[in-house]
Each structure stands twice: as C-alpha cells, then as structure tokens.
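Hey L., structure's done. Input below.
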Amino acid sequence: MAQFMDVHHGMKDLTADQLRQAHQADLDIEKEEGVHFEKAWADPASGTVYCLSEAPSADAVQRIHERAGHRADEIHPVPLSV
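Output:
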C-alpha cells in the first residue's frame, strides 16, 4: 500500500484536543476506504495540519477526510521514506 502526506490549511489556533478529535474522526471510518491514518501533526500558529497515511489512493484519503469534515488542501504521495 502507498503512503501519503496530506496538508490542511486554515486550522489556526487548533488545540491538541481538537487535533485528537479530528484524527479520531478519520480513524473511526478509515477502514471503509482501506485507509490507515498513522499520525497527525499541527502548527496552530500557521493553521497547518499534516497527516500521514497508508492508502490505496489519494482519492481514498480525500474521501475519508471529507466525510470526517476536514477536506485536505493537498495530498502528496510519499514514495520513499527511511
């Protein structure tokens, strides 16, 4: 399965609890698209959130994010990691 890093903009002043809730919303339905969200990071000052996932496609990642209420602004394949 491929890895993807997606980026969300405009989430300024996000708290740790809000990030945890958004991540959990993805986890609750991820299996329906064969996706697994591994980790999420946020920079509350800039409003940027990053999510790392394994998924069959970028479209599957986006469908989960949309259904969870936080559409990704960018989704990038991660073909290499160490």
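DSSP finds two helices and four strands in the chain. The longest helix spans residues 16-29.

-- N.
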